[in-house]
Amino acid sequence: MKPVLVTGASGFLGWHVARVLLERSYTVRALVRPGSRIGELDVERVTGDLRDAASLQRAVAGCGLVFHVAADYRLWAKDPSELYRSNVEGTRNLLAAARSAAVDRVIYTSTVGCIGVPPGGIGDEAAPVSLHQMTGAYKRSKFQAEQVALEFARGGFPVVIVNPTAPVGDHDVKPTPTGKIVVDFLNGDMPAFIDTGLNVVDVRDTALGHLLACERGKPGERYILGSENLTLAQILEKLAEITGRKAPRIRLPYAVAWCAGAFSTAWAGVTGTPPRVPLDAVRMARKKMWVTHEKARRELGFHPGPADIAWAKAVEWFRLAATA
Known about the structure:
The chain is an alpha/beta fold. It has 11 helices and 12 strands. The strands form 3 sheets. A 7-stranded parallel beta sheet has the order 3-2-1-4-5-6-10, sandwiched between helices. A 3-stranded mixed beta sheet has the order 7-9-11. It is globular and about 55 Å long.
């Protein structure tokens, strides 16, 4: 069996994708940067960088499948052009290398942020959406990267796109913005909340969805991998039930959150230290990113479990990580 290349295996979602593949007896090759750690996964490590086309050619050589999960996932960067180099040009570099290596299929990990959500409604893969609706460099770069993947698919190269929502669970090392909700709640660093909403899904279900997209997905199609639409207040109540802590009761007006984000981000521009409250994150939060995974259920057989289990796993993992 040809090896399977996974980019981003040192990250949260990519680690789980690699683990699911290993459990199904695939030989996994992981593209990693120098010094990156993958933990206990038994994979072949290949050092490289999405911005280095030559390293990608070496990484894909002999592979049958590619799962491109890696991305520069920052809601603030002192130099936003770095996000475009990794997310847009890096995706183009990898797909070009995979096509030259005659890879059988590529699963490209996009984001729910690229899905159109009508005001007050539920988004799906068919909802109209455009670049000008993308908030911040991260979303814009991922939207453009998704267009690159669609371009390759239209050219006849078998690329299937998945759009994960907010994955939750164990091994969220960085952590992701969703994982940071858990960390801040556990540390008592969330005295108030804003009126926003997101779709959450167990990270393991998301990883299984990647494999389903590889087996059953149609090239050039997008598939939302999500589960439950929840308000932030509902999420905090769930965390309160799991941990025994009290959920915050103060709802912060958007204008106050915007001012905090503007100040925090401006100060980050002076210090070079990432802001505690990125302004782009506040802007994104103004819109409830509620979507449906009906297409993935219908075409892929994607059946995610309850988000409650994922929150509990995340709490347990972050608690253990804090004592390690």
